[in-house]
Amino acid sequence: MKHHMTSLSTADIRPEYQDHPFDRESLAADPITQFCCWFDEAKTAGVLHPEAMTLATASKAGQPSARTVLLKEVTPRGFTFFTSYESRKGRDLKDNPQASLVFYWATLERQVVVIGMVERLTREESENYFRSRPRGAKLAAWTSNQSTPVADRATLEKRFAELEKRYPDADIPLPPHWGGYCLIPSSVEFWQGRPNRFHDRLRYGRDGENWVIERLAP
Fold it and tell me: CA 20 to 30 Å from 87, out of 29, 143, 162, 202?
């Protein structure tokens, strides 16, 4: 098939944001409580996959990369997700454990940006979560050497079938190369779209054990 060079402009796409004020007085004292409030509102509003978040990492050399992953838990400690330690993001986090998360909930014209240090969960914590995963997802964690080239999909499917025979029952162990991370926030920004691109941006920043809240210019 012959492809032709094309160009694309989005200059004519100019959505107007609704008028949903968001001010300092409406904020919770800490960002985790505020995040949980907004997350519940996103679920209630019918946002598709409100737990989906962009995870941005950088290599030791400073090469950035980003991808969408799923939030699995939020606690006072931080934001938890799971992946292969041997994936690109796993390699990045090993060399440079600083990362950022972005949640975008278009229905509510909101986003949350989280910045912080990332720590691996304990083996026990990862095992507890792994046991809750469906059987197919457990086998997939063993099947895929994430982020590395593969000849074709048939190769992966053959490996998956072999593992199904190796583990005929539901007792599938946690792979040694797979587990959880927790991003411990140092900054959490809440962004609310407003008319005329005059958005509300309120950011929590760490000050020892406390949080300082600042309004940012849109």
Answer: 162
8 A C-beta contact, residue 113 and residue 54: no
CA neighbours closer than 13 Å in the CB half-sphere of residue 101: 28
Q: What is the pLDDT of residues 96-145, one digit of tens each?
A: 999 999 999 999 999 999 999 999 999 999 999 988 888 888 888 877 77
Distance CA 90, CA 148 (A): 12
176-196 CB burial, b ≥16 within 10 A, e <16? eebbbbbbebebbbbbbbbee
Q: Which of 24, 77, 135, 197 is catalytic?
A: 197
Is 197 considered catalytic here? yes
d(CA 139, CA 103): 28
Rounded to an integer, what distance in angstroms lies between the CA atom of residue 177 and that of residue 133?
16
